[in-house]
Amino acid sequence: MLSVSKNVNDDTLQACADYLVHWTQSNGMIINTNKTKKILICFNKKVNTNGIPQLCIHGSNIDRVTNFKLLGVFISSDLSWDTHVTYMLQKAAKRMHCTIYLVKAGIPVNDILCVYCTVIRSILEYACPVRHPGLTKKLSKDIERVQKRCLKLLYQNFSYREALNQSGLCRLDYR
């Protein structure tokens, strides 16, 4: 559901929620109010967000959150990508260890590159058409740094640019 209004006391969102309840009941579905969340996106600093009416479904107040995960992408109330990029980097860092073990085991570089692209780079590229235009330079550099570290493991005597050429990969911000 989505409601856009300049009036913080507008009851359009509650009307949408009531319609949703009616629709789900008519179609034999049930809303899990424990998993239902609402997010408020308001850029007007003068608005007291605590005064905004609660959203209620089946007699339960719906929790207001500052960010939530939708299809693997974190959406924040300030519409920044900080939370999502932090999540991505943590997930990629956990998987970096497999690359280190493969290098130590003497696995051929092309095989390790295949593992990198499948296991790590796929995380870094997931939903990039959605988030890339809104990334700050710092966030973009943080993401690129993961690829830089992986390629440094594989091509220790090469610069990043040379490692990209040797591997056949391109920079993530270019891709």
Overview of this protein structure:
This protein has helices at residues 12-26, 82-104, 109-125, 128-131, 137-154, 160-167, and strands spanning 37-39, 56-57, 60-61, 63-65, 67-70, 73-76. The protein is mainly alpha-helical and 175 residues long. It has 2 domains: 12-65, no CATH class; 75-167, no CATH class. The strands form 3 sheets. It has a two-stranded parallel ribbon with strand order 1-4. A two-stranded antiparallel ribbon has the order 2-3. α2 (82-104) packs parallel to α5 (137-154).
Overview features:
two-stranded antiparallel ribbon, 175 residues, two-stranded parallel ribbon, mainly alpha
Outline of the structure:
The chain is mainly alpha-helical. The chain has six helices and six strands, in the order H-E-E-E-E-E-E-H-H-H-H-H.
Low-confidence stretches: none
What is the straight-line distance between the termini? 33 Å
Strand order of the largest sheet: 1-4
Question: What is the mean pLDDT?
Answer: 89
* Number of continuous helical runs: 6
User: What structural category arises from helix and sheet content?
Assistant: mainly alpha
State the domain count: 2
Strand fraction equals 5-15%
Let me know the largest β-sheet: 2 strands, parallel
Shape: elongated
Q: Percent of residues in helical segments? A: 40-55%
The succession of helices and strands, N to C, reads HEEEEEEHHHHH
The Rg value, from CA coordinates, equals 22 Å
Count the beta strands.
6
Describe the secondary structure blueprint for this structure:
Elements: H1 12-26, E1 37-39, E2 56-57, E3 60-61, E4 63-65, E5 67-70, E6 73-76, H2 82-104, H3 109-125, H4 128-131, H5 137-154, H6 160-167
Parallel strand pairs: 1-4
Antiparallel strand pairs: 2-3, 5-6
Helix pairs in contact: 2-3, 2-5, 3-5, 5-6
